[in-house]
Structure formats: structure tokens, C-alpha cells
């Protein structure tokens, strides 16, 4: 495989979160690191980023 699997490009994306509330974009073909869980899965990177932005926006509104 050439390059990083996290480079923007075609393919599905996930959003993972840990107990500290930290978010990360992740590729579904990679194992989710221990202590992290999937909170969103979708067909594009922009959708994953939108999910993270909505989570932060709702946290600010609280």
C-alpha cells in the first residue's frame, strides 16, 4: 500500500471516540484501537467531518 490510509481519498470513513471525548477519523478496514469506539460510519470523509462538527456544536449549546 502506498501512502497513508488516512490520506483524503475515496473509500469509507468512520468517526471513533474515546472515553476522554476525543474524536478521530478512522478507516473501517483498520482495527479500532483499544479504548476507542465507532460512533459514525459513512461513505465519505466529509460526512465524517460533518458528524464531528455536529457533536462539538451540540456540546457548545449545552
Biggest sheet descriptor = 3 strands, antiparallel
Q: CATH class, please?
A: Alpha Beta
CATH architecture: Alpha-Beta Complex
The geometry reads as globular
Structural class: alpha+beta
Number of domains: 1
CATH-defined topology: Rubredoxin-like
Helix content: 25-40%
Beta-strand residue fraction: 25-35%
Number of strands: 3
Radius of gyration from CA coordinates:
12 Å
Write a structural description:
By secondary structure, this protein is an alpha+beta fold. The protein has a single domain (13-61), classed as Alpha-Beta Complex (Rubredoxin-like), CATH 3.90.820. It has one helix at 45-61, and strands at residues 13-18, 23-26, 36-42. Strand 1 and strand 2 (23-26) form a beta hairpin. It is globular, with a radius of gyration of 12 Å.
Features:
62 residues; alpha+beta; Rubredoxin-like; 1 helix; 3 strands; globular
Helices and strands in order:
Layout: E1 13-18, E2 23-26, E3 36-42, H1 45-61
Antiparallel strand pairs: 1-2, 1-3
